[in-house]
Input
Amino acid sequence: DIQMTQSPSTLSASVGDRVTITCRASQSFSSWLAWYQQKPGKAPKLLIYKASSLQSGVPSRFSGSESGTEFTLTISSLQPDDFATYYCQQYNSYPRTFGQGTKVQIK
Amino acid sequence: EVQLVESGGGLVQPGGSLRLSCAASGFTFRRFWMSWVRQAPGKGLEWVANIKEDGSQKYYVDSVKGRFTISKDNAKNSVFLQMNSLRAEDTAVYYCARDSGTGFDCWGQGALVTVSS
Output
């Protein structure tokens, strides 16, 4: 199984900050990675697919990148609506696996 | 509008069974893989199972193999999760999700399954 390790687990930031969340895979695979945003009591929402492609309707302040086994989600200027928990997920192989989540909270 | 609506959740005793349903609308259901993803209270997301467009292939996470069965009825635009031999650790909100090949791009609202005596 591919293990996905996210860091940090919690992140405190202010509106307007640049925020970076990292996901490291236990083995190499090519770009089959998605990022999701989840708010309390709600279903997750797809933000990024194929490591760096922006899902339709998602603001352009969200971006994704990859370097080897490390994947990064960046929010260029944090907005009030962005305080949530973020998950990475690989869909290269079975079982599909998620990172443990990063909670972005108000500083 | 693309929509997924789960039903069938509830309280069940350990060792019992439950069948979740997910009704899809707003897209050509027969052209998509579908997945079930669960989230234990206060925990992260865990993929459970998925099924190919025509139902010919199915995959499961190890922890549910032999106990859960995913199925798909393209005539009724529905996907199901039959859960047998339920354990306390299966307690979670279960989401159905459209598995588009580029991630899970549409999710239902979730169905709570509680396994407790």
